[in-house]
């Protein structure tokens, strides 16, 4: 009887350990030195030098063509920025911030008498957009929740990101 109880406890412990799926992953591979987003192709690449380590399909702002000019335009920025922050409690599972707007973005919007907006992130997808059929963000770059877990682990703050048309 004691052996059966012990076996039951052991199986329960293994089941619990095996099912725990933390959203915080570890990455021990080559460092990511550059993130490249190709808006037209809807691709995001993580690079070490010139070697592509990982690639992902992405969704963009609801009006993706062109550079983000003002708050609310639904565009994803284009240009060179940096990964500058992370949000482990994002409403979009996990997110890493992009340093938009830069000085040129601010000046361009100010010349129009508008705000350039901000809070541009790479993040996961809520359930209502998991069908993956359309661009839907306010200007962010969206991947699946599983993919943002990998990206979050692989890409440190300070990493350059180039967002191409």
Structure explained in plain terms:
The chain is α+β, with helices and mostly antiparallel strands and 165 residues long. It is built from 3 helices and 8 strands; from the N terminus they run αβββββαββαβ. The chain has helices at residues 2-19, 103-111, 145-154, and strands at 34-38, 43-48, 51-57, 79-87, 95-98, 120-123, 141-142, 160-164. The protein has an 8-stranded mixed β-sheet with strand order 3-2-1-8-4-5-6-7, with helices on one face.
- The H/E string reads HEEEEEHEEHE
Number of strands: 8
Average of per-residue pLDDT values: 88
- Low confidence ranges: 5-20
- Radius of gyration of CA atoms, rounded to a whole number: 20 Å
Helix count?
A: 3
**Overall geometry:** globular
Q: Strand order across the biggest sheet?
A: 3-2-1-8-4-5-6-7
Distance from N terminus to C terminus (CA atoms, Å) equals 68 Å
Would you summarize the structure shown here?
The chain is α+β, with helices and mostly antiparallel strands and 165 residues long. The chain has three helices and eight strands.
What structural keywords apply?
165 residues, eight-stranded mixed β-sheet
């Amino acid at each position: 009887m004691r052996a059966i109880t012990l076996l039951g406890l052991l199986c329960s412990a293994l089941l619990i350990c095996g099912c725990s799926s933390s959203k915080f992953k570890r990455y021990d591979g080559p460092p990511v030195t550059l993130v490249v987003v190709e808006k037209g192709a809807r691709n995001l690449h993580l690079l070490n030098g010139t070697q592509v380590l990982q690639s992902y399909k992405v969704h963009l702002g609801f009006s993706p063509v062109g550079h983000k000019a003002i708050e609310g335009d639904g565009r994803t920025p284009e240009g060179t920025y940096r990964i500058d922050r992370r949000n482990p409690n994002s409403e979009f599972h996990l997110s890493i911030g992009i340093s938009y707007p830069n000085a040129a973005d601010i000046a361009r919007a100010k010349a129009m008498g508008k705000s350039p907006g901000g809070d541009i992130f790479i993040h996961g997808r809520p359930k209502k957009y998991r069908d993956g059929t359309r661009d839907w963000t306010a200007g962010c770059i969206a991947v699946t929740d599983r993919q943002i877990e990998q990206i979050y682990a692989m890409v440190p703050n300070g990493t350059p990101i180039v967002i191409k048309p």
